[in-house]
Amino acid sequence: MGPSGTRDTASVRRRYFALAVAVGLAATLALAVTIGPHSSAAPSAQKAAARTATARTATTQAVSAATPVPGNPAAKAAAEAALAGNPAADAPPPQPLDSHATKTPLTRIVQYHGYQVTVPGSWPVYDLAADPSQCVLFNVHAVYLGTPGSAQDCPATALGHTESLFIQAVSPASAPSSAVVLPGTSATLPQKAALPAAATAAAAVSHMLQVEVSVAGVLVTAAYGANETQIRTILAGATQTGTASGSSASTTAAVSGPSATQGVLSSGSELVTGQAGTAQAAPVKAAAAQQAAPAAATARVSGLTGSGLGFDTCTVPSAATMTSWLSSPYRVAATYLGGMNWACSYGNFTPAWVRKVAAEGWRFAPLWVGRQAPCTNVPFVAKINPSQAAAEGQSEAKSAVAAARAFGFGPGTPVYFDMEGYQTGQSACTRAVLNFLGGWTRGLHAAGYVSGVYSSASSGITDLAHQYGNAGYPRPDDIWIADWNSEPVLTDHAVPNGDWANHQRLHQYAGPHNETWGGATVNMDSDAADGLVAGLPAVPVLHGPNENAAPSELRVAPGQTARVRLTLQGVPNTPVTVRWQAAAPKGLTVSPSAGNVDLWPSMALSVGLTLAPSKSLAARRYSLPITVTAGGKPVADSFVLVSVVPAGRTLPPAHPLVLYAADKTSMSAAVAIAAALALPLSDVTGSYSRAWTATAGGKALVLAVGQPAADALYFNVCGWANPAKRKAGSTPFYYPGAPQRQSPGRNYFELSDTPTAAGTAQLTTQLTQYALGGTLPEHQTVPAAPTLACLGSPNVPVR
Fold this sequence. Notes:
Blueprint: H1 11-14, H2 44-54, H3 74-85, E1 107-112, E2 115-120, E3 125-127, E4 143-145, E5 164-169, E6 180-182, H4 197-206, E7 208-213, E8 218-223, H5 228-236, E9 239-240, E10 262-264, E11 269-273, E12 302-312, H6 319-324, E13 330-338, H7 351-359, E14 363-368, H8 389-406, E15 414-419, H9 427-446, E16 450-456, H10 460-466, E17 478-482, E18 505-517, E19 520-535, E20 546-550, E21 553-556, E22 562-569, E23 577-582, E24 588-591, E25 594-598, E26 604-613, E27 620-630, E28 633-644, E29 657-661, H11 664-676, E30 684-685, H12 688-697, E31 701-705, H13 707-714, E32 750-752, H14 757-773
Parallel strand pairs: 1-11, 3-4, 4-5, 6-7, 12-13, 13-14, 14-15, 15-16, 16-17, 17-18, 21-28, 29-30, 29-31, 31-32
Antiparallel strand pairs: 1-2, 2-9, 5-8, 7-8, 10-11, 12-19, 18-19, 20-22, 22-26, 23-25, 23-27, 24-26, 27-28
């Protein structure tokens, strides 16, 4: 996603429940978040400049290194960077290429893997073997040779298609089914040749032609914009220079440096050769071809309500980066399914990627970048035909559903159409957009999918909001508001508070910038979500017995004893013979400390454990893991957090912690948990004003214990007095999508509420155990969403 045209403005963590939470959206909801010190923003202009400076483009003897090669992406990148830095500016129109005929060869001959093609001399050539970080982009004239790296240095946004080539080694088994397969020793696709039906359908969806050149063992992806004739002419002029293994010349990377083979031909052409590669699965597949995805891509991922912070970038990071980013506050990632105006390549994005990343707890916001508004200023994009708008919208929906199914997104999944910003005040354009998006919604609903629309607050979202009360208009189920106001709120001036108010909104609140988490850097836009996303209803857990140690938090004085009861309940598929063992730290004796049991599904084992810290054991908190194994492999675990402290003494936490309750029942639970942890009673509060101050300050981790406390900090429906003098229905607070060891920053609190008092106490125990000891049990309690109820009291005694 890009600038929206004119606008007004750790392993235990992976097992966590957080993103199964459905979060309430109030009609008057206002949520503000400070990301915290880990966020390192960098203007996209700096990224574009760095990318241009490091690009390995082909050079010639006739052009000095200091002279930009005409047609390289420098000018466009600079324009895009300026636009990204100023969301209120209109996108620049396409700029003509400077011919520089006296400095640049008229044509450039590119050789790769025995395949030779002639392209305009102004097109840069990128050798992906020499620079795996180079981003494959189809909105600039260029040639890409080889397989993209797993860490492409892509911008957060790239839109549109223009004439460009991507040539990579491929085996027949991995080529997309929609590719045109050239027979025998042929490397040429005749310009006037009729294409197979599958290729024609794929090209209509993606504005790409894919050609498998069997004799050279390459797949050629040829993107086009307004000049399909030029790309067909280039493909028609291709030749074969040898077998797939190539000659010595064709395995030398002329694009990688001055030592490579290159030369200006007598015809005014430059010879550029790329490194030969091994056959890889094609990372770029047209949407129509994706219908033939492997059977392994089962549709287990489906739609559900997701709340929290998210990010979007042009092509998904590697699975390793997604794992590293579990240390971030983000848990929702945008995933582009394709579309004729999506300028990036799929790269890491595969059904296997979806399954792996979903299993870690990530949620997805699938996007489709199809035809744009007739009055858009975004360059190089295919536009809606006003007379065919509704039909085109339904056609786009059909293609998007095919892609979603291929990647493993099942029925009920939301798919968001990316309608970039467009000029306002043009009734014919507005009508075309609305008809198109109405067709999009009808098409998705017919296929059993959920309709979403991403657009600028001041164009697409405004126009949709005007139709909200129109019973005859098929409005989208969810909206994704692009409004770069730097506030992760879910209200917007363009949308009345009562519209799309039932967990139906996402908000892109910041444009392109860099963030680094877990050592991995991504250029991204920032989002806040309280709407439909896609994911697994529950993150899979190990198959093993249900294990519980109670109490899981307790205090005991040195030289004294305490009792814990371990319970194992057999479940279906549980290994029959299991072993449990308590790994007590030095100075803490557990008796018995281990045992073996034959545990059938209908059986339960209950064992009383005696904990005895030595008299000399230092006063502190100790984690006691109790692990169940079968065949030498762990199948379940639980933890007891033991606070060893003399009677009458307390153990302040390493990082400030506040338990806030706004009703008597929740307060009783908070006080009991504080006592079991030997926390000072001053760490518990029933004062709304104090809880507000602590949450806003960001130094203490504030746990909202129970529904009244959660509702008050999230909505303040009651309108309780607060230090910021906010009115009823509005707070600046948000909560992260993962358990916390300490406060993540200003304006964050942690949700600790379930529908039952017992569940709330259990959840609070789990969250305090993680905050103080860093451990979570295998089976966690799921928190409930805040509601619009006015419950509790602004001041509850601590007792």
